[in-house]
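Review form for a predicted model. The reviewer records the input and the model, then writes brief findings.
Reviewer: anonymous (R2)
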Amino acid sequence: MNFFGSWVTVYLAGLAIVSYCIQNLIKIKKILIPTLCFIHLFYGQLKLDNEVWMSFRGAEMILIMKIISVTVDVETSVPELISYLSYLFSINSSVIGPWISYGQFLNQISKPSGASLSMLKKKLSYLVYAMITLVCSNCLLSLIESYVQGVPLVDMYFQAFSFRQSNYFICYLSQFILNLNQTDDYLVVKQMPIELPRSMVNVVTNWNLPMHYWLKKYVFHNLKNNFGIFVSMFVTYFVSSAIHGFDPNIILILFSIGWFAYVEFEFRAKISDKLSSCIGSRECKQKCTHINKNTRLAVKTMNSYFYLLNMYHLAYLGQLFYFENGQDITFSHGFNKWSQTYYSSHLISLVMFLSSKIM
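Model under review:
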């Protein structure tokens, strides 16, 4: 907690203590606690100094996710205060994450960590991955920038590539720290399904596995039965934007990637059904009922097209996180970046959406 300084420590601890008091109000806590969390979040975003806010925004996001998950998972028997605070501020997940559930936390502290050589090698490999992605994020673009600057698509791809590496660094580092004292192998990110994405759904699910699970369990599934998939998806991405601190670029990217994933899923499902082919957003199981399997050249060609399209989408979206010196983080920055490529990914997704409605 002192990692952030005494004032921020009090600010975060205050939220934790107040939320614990509300946990005892069983009937209304599921309304009051999320409201409290988002008021606290919005205050930090709007009122605090931007430099100070950015220094602990990630820790606040993890704290809010933990508070809300306990609120939903623990219906009646509220944890003791010490257990509750120990979970919220556990040293291996409270600064850079990842989110873990209260049940996982209890399991973590009750089981011996284990110390086999193979397990130690695996844990150390996550630290190695973190260092490699750190170098790629900070050094690779600087080394090749003069060669790729101004080259259509290539320049955009490496700008986005650098941002993705910074995400992998945080994920692998948090994965290493969390796995140091537990026997189970807890994964935070899967890099290859993102770098070579069969679909945008794969990108969404593998970008941050705990975050995806949290949004799916505590937001999406609670809304789907009453409001349908599209509205539930929209609210889920709104909540994701909120807990990320309503950063303009993150808002634009999250809603865009949600739209791309939804449209691609619907479009490929229609094509897959009409052509009886294994070209859906998710890879078919071995015993699927499609006539045209993955081994056929036409199916491979179609899937390859979507691989390339999704790599382009990633470059198109990720370029928003490349800033010139002194450039402000605003919505206009994102729109200006996309206008340079004529909003191509959004137009492609619009064509796919209209085509899926006609089919």
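Findings: Residues 137 and 163 are 7 Å apart (CA to CA).
Further findings: The chain has a mean pLDDT of 89.
Recommendation: see findings above.
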